[in-house]
Write a structure and sequence with these properties.
CATH architecture of the largest domain: Alpha-Beta Complex
Number of strands: 12
Strand content: 15-25%
Number of domains: 2
Order of helices and strands: HHEEHEEEHEHEHHEHEHEHEHE
Structural class: alpha/beta
CATH class of the largest domain: Alpha Beta
Radius of gyration: 23 Å
CATH superfamily of the largest domain: Quinolinate phosphoribosyl transferase, N-terminal domain
Shape: elongated
Strand order of the largest sheet: 6-11-10-9-8-7
Largest sheet: 6 strands, parallel
Length: 292
């Protein structure tokens, strides 16, 4: 379906969402609307947003009416002003009514993530740093939510526990410290995978660097400590170590964090605290058919 989203996955997510909402049937629509009635709908942004999930919304209606015809009036990643129409769809009135809420839920959620992600990207514009997301996503929706982060102009961290090594605080608590944990993982992991370790103070920064960490995550450090940690890492035996800042990164302080010289700033808020945006749908009796 383009835009970097796997169609098989999207159809599975949509199937579950529709099943949850429709159950054994849309009672109201089945009582009021005939099978052969045709309608058209307009989906409109009711506030300024960065659009995301347009093709997901279209796929909702295609699932309910394979013959539905679409006119896409905006693209994912586009800055949309309040009052702008995003999608025009024509098809069976029953399908439009039944799919309306699910389609809007995807659009409102994903556009909310993209809109917040764009604000973070703009906050560090011009600096050599990437804002990345986390695994703090809605269960079952990680792929589409991380897609919305990219649409907004930020970057993805690892997708799951399977595609990156990250030694976190609780791993360290169950071993014998940062250095020991890092050495164990380096000895056992494939050479093709980088080793990242989370640290909370300057002593652990030095331990992680000495043990050969490829990426050091500075967790919940204030700006002065972060700046000192960056200095230690950058001057450590001429080894190139990537530096990530994490914890408490808001729009009010993310640029200051970026100015310390870190390479990455991970922001869980991109997905776990983004607000849904206001997008609506109006459905009308059909006047003239959209040509395929």
């Amino acid at each position: 379906m383009g835009n970097d989203l796997p169609l098989t996955y999207i159809r599975s997510v949509i199937k579950n969402a529709l099943s949850e909402d429709i159950g054994p049937g849309d009672i109201t629509t089945s009582l009021l609307i005939s099978e052969d009635q045709i309608a058209e709908g307009f989906i409109t942004a009711e506030e300024d947003v960065i659009a995301a999930g347009i093709l997901v919304a279209e796929e909702v209606f295609k699932t309910l009416d394979p013959d539905a015809v679409f006119e896409t009036l905006a693209r994912d990643g586009e800055s949309i002003s309040a009052g702008t129409k995003i999608i025009r769809v024509q098809g069976k009135a029953k399908a439009l009514l039944t799919g309306e809420r699910v389609a809007l839920n995807f659009l409102q959620r994903l556009s909310g993530i993209a809109t917040l992600s764009r604000r973070y990207a703009e906050a560090v514009k011009g600096l050599p740093v990437r804002i990345v997301d986390t695994r703090k996503t809605t269960p079952g929706l990680r792929v589409v939510e991380k897609y919305a982060v990219r649409v907004g102009g930020c970057w993805n961290h690892r997708f799951g526990l399977f595609d990156g090594i990250l030694i976190k605080e609780n791993h360290i608590a169950l071993t014998s410290g940062v250095g020991v944990a890092t050495n164990i993982v380096r000895d056992k992991s494939p050479h093709t995978i980088k080793v990242e370790v989370e640290v909370k103070n300057l002593e652990e920064v030095r331990e992680a660097a000495e043990a050969g960490a490829d990426i050091i995550m500075l967790d919940n450090m204030d700006i002065p400590m972060m700046r000192e940690a960056v200095g230690i890492i950058r001057n450590y035996k001429d080894k190139e170590i990537m530096i990530e800042a994490s914890g408490g990164m808001g729009l009010d302080n993310v640029r200051n964090a970026a100015l310390t010289g870190v390479d990455l700033i991970s922001v869980g808020a991109l997905t776990h605290s983004s607000s849904w945006v206001n997008i609506s749908m109006d459905i009308y009796p059909v006047k003239s058919k959209i040509k395929k």
